[in-house]
Amino acid sequence: MKKKLVSALMCVAMTATVLAGCGNSSEPAAAPAETTPAAAPAETTPAAAPAETTPAEAPAETQAAEPAASGDVITVGFAQVGHESDWRAANTKNYQDTFSAENGYELSFVDCDNDHAVQIETVRGFIEQELDYICIAPIQSAGWDTVLQEAKDAGIPVLIVDRAVDADPSLYTTALGCDMVAEGEAAGNWLAEYLNGEDANILVIEGSVGASATLGRTEGFNNIVANNSNWTVLDSQSGDFTQAGGQEVMESFIKSYSDFNVVVCQNDNEAYGAMDAMDAAGITYGVDGDVIIISFDATHDGLQYTLDGKITCNVECNPLQAGFAEGVIKKLEAGEAVDAWTLVEDEAFVAPGITSEYAVTMSQEVLDGRAY
Ligand code: GYE
Fold first, then answer.
1. Whole-number Å distance between alpha carbons of 285 and 263
2. Domain covering 180-317+348-368, topology
3. How far is the CA of 318 from the centre of ligand 1 (A)?
4. Residue 268 CB partners (closer than 8 Å, separation 6+)
5. Three-state SS for 338?
6. Could you identify the atom of ligand 1 that is nearest to the CA of residue 86?
7. DSSP labels, 61-85
């Protein structure tokens, strides 16, 4: 049941290696339709568009100046976070399927193994190779100004994908991803509705330190905690978005706390590890147990556990984001302006027998209808 990260590991490359053939047949990528022009109509970055680069800004030899219409292959570098979770594996596959040779791309995919310094150097390598476009899924939100300035000086459009950076938006072309604060708030709002006034003693297994997914989900959930005076967050520790990390943190929580009724895991893999730790300690969880588990991601296995009533609420983050990135690149190739920010929408799911204004009730049909 608990998935191993084989497919992602098979695609790991520590150097900028072309792995476009690693994915299987293309799934239809998510359509880049859910843009939020209202949120950012004017902050387009025409200077970053290949068509508008001047020789002074971008050496004439860079392929960034060649539009797709010329028939040239478009080179894209993707500095991916790593292979820490099922979500990441689905996200990687989606990029490899979308930016495939058949679709006219040469993808330089680099798994940065959750190492910020490696990720910065990876982006520098993409700049040196004069790739047409650079996609970055930032491991951490801080520390990006210098290398983003270097990419801008080289005239290479940068797409910040999945997670956010804490940097001046003029340093990159566009950003896209889920609203992590809204995800945290959805989890909290659902919990308030479900508990209906009962006390909550909460343990939080956070994601990777400094990642915007962690910061946002924590902030959003805490916004709702602040409205509920009978809720206490007993502890909050990083499980690094991994199953092993979730298990380790839960084991240590179990040693320190005996009176808790809610465990919030900031992704599905951490929830699998937390369940293993509670199983070993004889602690019951789920709709028929003593502890409510809230998870994030809503990947296939996470939703199977939700359908089984083990995870009570699972807040989605849609990993199929490459279509949005491709939509941006196509616009830039056509010399069109792009939105500064594109929201990838998501929803929440709850175990059978629960109805919620914040979440969809799980059924086999819902699970079967999912693309990941
Ligand atoms: O929740 C987690 C992954 O950035 C949204 O990263 C992503 C998070 C996702 O490792 O499973």
1. 9
2. Rossmann fold (3.40.50)
3. 10
4. 85, 86, 87, 295, 296, 297, 298, 299, 301, 302, 305, 311, 314
5. coil
6. 11
7. TSGGGS-GGGTPPEEEEEEE--S-S
Give, to the nearest 10 degrees, the angle between helix 243-256 and helix 268-281.
Answer: 40
Q: Are strands 105-111 and 17-18 parallel, antiparallel or unpaired?
A: antiparallel
Strand partners, 265: 205
> Are 50-178+320-343 and 180-317+348-368 equal in CATH topology?
yes
Contact 351, 312 (CB under 8 A): yes
Q: pLDDT band at 226, cuts 50/70/90?
A: very high
- Quote the longest CA-to-CA distance of the chain: 67
Tens of pLDDT, residue by residue over 77-131, are: 999 999 999 999 999 999 999 999 999 999 999 999 999 999 999 999 999 999 9
- Cβ atoms of 341 and 40 closer than 8 Å: yes
Q: Give the pLDDT confidence score for residue 71 in this predicted structure.
A: 64
| Binding site membership of 295 for ligand 1 (Cβ less than 6 Å) | no
Closest CA to 29 of 154, 155, 161: 161
Instruction: Give the residue extent of every domain in the chain.
Output: 50-178+320-343, 180-317+348-368
Establish whether residue 240 lines the binding site of ligand 1, counting it when its CB lies within 6 angstroms of any ligand atom.
Answer: no
The dotted CATH code for 50-178+320-343 is: 3.40.50.2300
Between strands 158-161 and 133-136, the pairing is parallel
232 Cα to the center of ligand 1, angstroms: 25
Query: How many C-beta atoms surround the C-beta of residue 193 within 10 A?
Result: 16
**pTM score:** 0.83
Quote the pLDDT of residue 136.
Answer: 99
Q: Which two tokens stand for residue 133?
A: 């476009």
The secondary structure element, H or E, covering residue 126 is helix 116-128
